Amino acid sequence: MEVAVTSDVGTGQRHNDDGWCAEQLHKNVTLLAVADGFGRPQGVSASTVVLDAIRDRVRRELRRATLPSRTLTRNDLRELLVHAFADANDRLLRMSGGGDDYVSSGSTCSLILIVSEEAFVAHIGDSRAYLLRRGELVQLTSDEAIETDFVRSGSGQAAARPARHALPLLTRALGIEQAINAPPKVTHYTLHPHDALLLCTDGACRGLSHGDIQTYLASTDRADTIAERIVGRSRAWGNTDNATVLFVRDANEHGTPRETLAIHRRSRRTLAAMFIVLGIFWVAMLFGVGLRAADDHLYLGVDQTGTVTLYAGLPTAIGGLPLHYVRARFGSQASTLPAAARSELETGLPVDSVGEASTLVDQWREQQSKP
């Protein structure tokens, strides 16, 4: 997984109140998130409060799960994100002193929790999440904001002229009402190899068309170059707000590219070792079967010294490896036996048992000993 983040304070802001998180919480669990806050409860950015609360809840549940990809169902993970957003909402309300009739601070949040190859997207506000697959870009979230795209003319009528520096009005955010009234929207996707993900705050994507973003993300440039290019293009359009871009390539591969490569190498070595072990096992099995079969196939022949010998197996060899072994030697030289016997021994004379072989050899001896 290649992760790149660019976060810029913007020309019209004193503080960068955007926040982001890209953290591997387990060997096959990665948390990605961006948040755009307003207000600074107790001197801390609202986005930081939100992301810390969400991360705390997710970490706590993962520690209980031990093996998240097996012990947590899809419904469990959806509920986990709903509860994590509720914790963030409550913590922000508590720290800011806000209530139903007073909004002190708030924050958007777009989050992707990747468990193995499953991506769970949780969202509130107008930060965005995108998926790039085979060069095609899909926006996974919808903006929960009213765009102030018009400015008033002198006559009081709305003039159809874009207000580049106007900020959208959020319709939903964390920290402005009780959590029960502001649950996140949670969706689920299965990641494919080489999928890329983009999370960004509105200051980074405002003014860029869907096609512009797709073109940038489909580039083969380094991930950090692409993230910087998107923020730079937004600045050129005239945005002065905080802007944060979190871009991830190979989103289904947990860990850094170097760690992922090491894992693949270990996996290939492990697979090769398994094939070798299986190969040895099957060779041993076939050899054992061959030995058992050989015991049922006996023949009389002659060894290299010319001695009459009983063999088990077949009177041939493959690649220099004989397909037979010695069962018994009878101490008689083939040259001392009748010509007919020598002829049969040269091609291998099948017999049914050691006793039959011994009887044949005795008969040949008697025949040769007669005058």
Overall description:
The chain has 371 residues and is an alpha+beta fold. It folds into 3 domains: 252 residues, Phosphatase 2c, domain 1 (4-Layer Sandwich); 38 residues; 73 residues, Alpha-Beta Plaits, CATH 3.30.70. 37% of the residues lie in helices and 30% in strands. It has 9 helices and 19 strands. Strands 2, 3, 4, 5, 6 and 13 form a 6-stranded antiparallel sheet that branches. It has a 5-stranded antiparallel sheet with strand order 1-15-14-7-8. A hairpin with a 2-residue loop joins strand 5 and strand 6. Helix 1 packs antiparallel against helix 3. The radius of gyration is 39 Å and the shape is rod-shaped. It starts with a strand and ends with a helix. About 5% of the residues have low confidence.
What are its keywords?
Alpha-Beta Plaits; single chain; alpha+beta; 3 domains; 9 helices; 5-stranded antiparallel β-sheet; Phosphatase 2c, domain 1; 371 residues; 6-stranded antiparallel β-sheet
CATH homologous superfamily name of the largest domain?
PPM-type phosphatase domain
In helices, the fraction of residues equals 25-40%
State the distance separating the first and last CA atoms.
93 Å
Structural class: alpha+beta
Q: What is the alpha-carbon Rg in Å?
A: 39 Å
CATH architecture of the largest domain: 4-Layer Sandwich
Report the biggest beta sheet as strand number plus sense, adding barrel if it closes. 6 strands, antiparallel
CATH class of the largest domain: Alpha Beta
Q: What fold name goes in the CATH topology slot of the largest domain?
A: Phosphatase 2c, domain 1
Series of secondary-structure elements, N-terminal to C-terminal: EEEHHHEEEEEEEEEEEHHHEHEEEHEH
Q: Write down the overall mean pLDDT.
A: 84
